[in-house]
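Exercise 7b. Backbone tokens:
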């Protein structure tokens, strides 16, 4: 049952705007820092933040691309903001500090979730700051994520080796960016470094299939299943009695018998 929530805009200490949604009761509540897709902080992100708050979470959804000069173009998908890994960690630290300033936030139970372009960033943050969970939605696993460059100065695998929290992953079998082999590489890297994870791959789901503002991508059945799996995961690993000293691996994958990654297409 959804709880009563309050919601509004705040500004983090670094000038970064953020949308805050939380239960109306005093708490303290488990914290979820929500990283938006490549479109920036749009209404879809706020809707998901409200939904998560209705499940009892203190949710902070910052505008990580707040320095982009053309927000209208960014929100419409006509422009991009190439945030570097160090920038993402710095901005997540500002969001983390903003949450910590609110007495209704339980900072012993913090999860960070990244979606699409920001999928890798919860893992990078967890390598530097102790959090309770990292969440990755159809990001952080493509071949381009595993190399170093000016935006990605350190190896993602090195960050994964340093994290000390369970990881949730949600992917689509018809994603045109992330193949099933890419997801398996992500899974295998977590296993190599003995990190707990729960990963789901949904048959018939393209890239961005959680976003109900994009009719070509949205898959209601898979979106509902993926969101429910995420919330069950968070409820479990953020529960006061959860013990993270054991390593737990769960991989649930469905795809067509004639799967061919080269046939997966970008949808809007």
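Sequence design result:
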């Amino acid at each position: 049952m959804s709880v009563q929530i309050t919601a509004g805009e705040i500004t983090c200490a670094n000038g970064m705007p953020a949308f805050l949604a939380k239960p109306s009761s005093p708490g303290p509540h488990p914290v979820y820092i929500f990283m938006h897709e490549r479109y920036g902080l749009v209404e879809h992100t706020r809707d998901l933040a409200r939904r998560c708050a209705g499940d009892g979470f203190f949710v902070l959804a910052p505008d990580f691309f707040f320095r982009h000069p053309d927000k209208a173009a960014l929100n419409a998908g006509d422009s991009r903001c190439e945030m570097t890994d160090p920038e993402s960690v710095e901005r997540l630290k500002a969001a983390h500090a903003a949450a910590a300033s609110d007495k209704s936030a339980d900072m012993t139970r913090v999860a960070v979730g990244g979606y699409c372009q920001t999928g890798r960033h919860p893992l990078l943050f967890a390598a530097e700051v102790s959090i309770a969970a990292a969440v990755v939605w159809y990001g952080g696993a493509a071949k381009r994520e595993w190399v170093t460059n000016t935006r990605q100065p350190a190896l993602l695998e090195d960050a994964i080796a340093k994290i000390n929290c369970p990881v949730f992953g949600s992917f689509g079998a018809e994603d045109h960016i992330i193949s099933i082999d890419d997801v398996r590489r992500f899974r295998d890297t977590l296993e190599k470094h003995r990190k707990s994870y729960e990963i789901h791959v949904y048959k018939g789901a393209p890239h961005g299939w959680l976003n109900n503002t994009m009719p070509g991508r949205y898959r209601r059945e898979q979106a509902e299943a993926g969101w429910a799996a995420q919330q069950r995961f968070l409820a479990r690993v953020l529960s006061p009695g959860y013990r993270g000293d054991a390593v737990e691996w769960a991989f649930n994958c469905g795809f067509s018998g004639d799967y061919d990654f080269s046939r997966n297409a970008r949808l809007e």
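Instructor comment: The radius of gyration is 17 Å. Residues 5-263 form a domain with the Rossmann fold fold (CATH 3.40.50.1820).
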